[in-house]
Amino acid sequence: MNADRLFRERLHAFSTEFITYARYMANGGVLYLFVILSGVLSLYYRSLLAIIPPWFPLTHGLALVIALFVTRSPHRTFLLEADLLFLAPHETRLDGYFRKTQVYNFVVQSSGLFVLLLLLSPMYAGVVGANGVQLWLYWLVPFLLKGWNVHSSWTFLRLSAKKTERLYTLVRFGLSYLVLAWVFSAGQFLSFGHVPFGGVIAAALFVWLHAHMRKIQAKLPLQWYRLLAMESRLRQRFYQFANNFRDVPAIQRQVKPRFWLTAVTRLLPYGQAYTARHLFVKTFLRSGELAGMYGRLVLIGTVLVLLLPVLLAKAVTAALLLFMTAIQLNSLWRQQSNRSTGLLFPVPAPAQRRAFVWLRSVLLLLQGAVHIAAGMW
Length: 377
What we know:
Layout: H1 3-26, H2 30-43, H3 45-50, H4 58-71, H5 83-86, H6 95-127, H7 133-156, H8 162-184, E1 191-192, E2 195-196, H9 197-219, H10 224-242, H11 262-265, H12 275-286, H13 290-307, H14 311-337, H15 349-375
Antiparallel strand pairs: 1-2
């Protein structure tokens, strides 16, 4: 077995698939919407900085946001279901393979971290007034923490108890926040007199975690089922996003009960003529990706409309997000068309199309009403 060749083959297969679907997404128009929206935000970025009140602890806010980003470290391993049978017995010979996957995850996640730091750097330099060494530390320390979090989270994935793993994740977040807050405040965070308690606590947590990591690495094997489940979630998340622009045969639909939203369907009239509406409303509410996507777009649009100072910028941003939502909701029709629901619900195709158009119109009107209300606040 050649672990290096195996990694190159898996990486090449995934990269080919990613580039193929990325072309469809780029041709779908959403890329241009992101460019326009980024241009609007950059145009009014200084105005957004001006509304930050002087009493707001910006250094702690920046440390909190960046700590959340560096702590979250999902691991793409390119594993397949057949690997449980063919690769799991050779776990001791795959150290080089998994080291390369950690490097890959660090590089990919660091690109997102770079964009976040680039977006927040004017706040740190302009509002806080950092310069010189502080700016160098601002750019260096988060990447060091990201690398350490990728390595440590990989070690803690060996734990079989999820509650214990979540406890270690909370400790990793606390350590990352302490280090970032201490660095961003130039050593003033939790400092009393000449004693930097913030740095001392962070060092103690790091030693404690490192000791536990050594024990876990020595005693526990890899949890192959957990690694495979994580890889499957990452793949399905990408497939779900790409499915908005092109049908993805490999996608696996996820359904969530969401009992707290069941009352919404009771608002619809009950009758044979409304069968299609009930079908599409329940499909949307129980969808693992569409309902969450819709809620995130409404929330993001509301925040942006509240923050942007000019009415024209608010209107353009709301219109762009409304268009993005309409594009995303089109996948609901494709999703329902590919299913064999006609055998259970013999509803004519025109009636299903009208029900879909009705639901999409209601959701877009609701989003528009929320954004208008936020703009008039």
